[in-house]
């Protein structure tokens, strides 16, 4: 039997666009859940702040930041370039927040970023930076399939 190889290029979203959209939606949902958890609390001490899912300290400003990251992600998902910039930019910001969480867990008196948030921020930074730095529009959705 002869085997033919065909290359298909999808016109859908690139990996960066999909990641920006998914992270954006999740950040918006986390913000909304955080508003229900913390209300209008501005507690900045990670040991005293209300906890989202029983693990992650949040306050009003923290929830607003999550909401802004969510809106940014959803809007950035429109184009590959914007989505890639979102992934790299948000990843870099979360890397800085992870380091700050070790040394300034009360976020300079603004947001609680210590405790479990440190490890979550490390994870977010790694995933977002990996997607942003490896996603290329030309090669993202080119799949080779074999036909028999």
What does this structure look like?
This protein has 148 residues and is mainly α. It has one domain. 59% of the residues lie in helices and 11% in strands. It has five helices and four strands. A two-stranded antiparallel ribbon has the order 1-4. The protein has a two-stranded antiparallel sheet with strand order 2-3. Strand 2 and strand 3 form a beta hairpin. It starts with a strand and ends with a strand. Mean pLDDT is 88; it is low at 4-9.
Please render the helix and strand layout as text.
Layout: E1 4-9, H1 15-38, E2 51-52, E3 56-57, H2 60-76, H3 80-103, H4 107-110, H5 116-134, E4 142-147
Antiparallel strand pairs: 1-4, 2-3
Overall number of structural domains: 1
Strand order, sheet with most strands: 1-4
Category from helices, strands and their pairing: mainly alpha
Query: Mean pLDDT, nearest integer?
Result: 88
- Shape descriptor reads globular
Secondary structure: number of strands: 4
CA distance, first residue to last residue: 7 Å
Query: What order do the SSEs take from the amino end to the carboxyl end, as H and E?
Result: EHEEHHHHE
Q: Helicity, in percent?
A: 55-70%
Question: So how many helices?
Answer: 5
For the largest beta-sheet, the strand count, sense and barrel status come to: 2 strands, antiparallel
Q: In percent terms, what proportion of residues is strand?
A: 5-15%
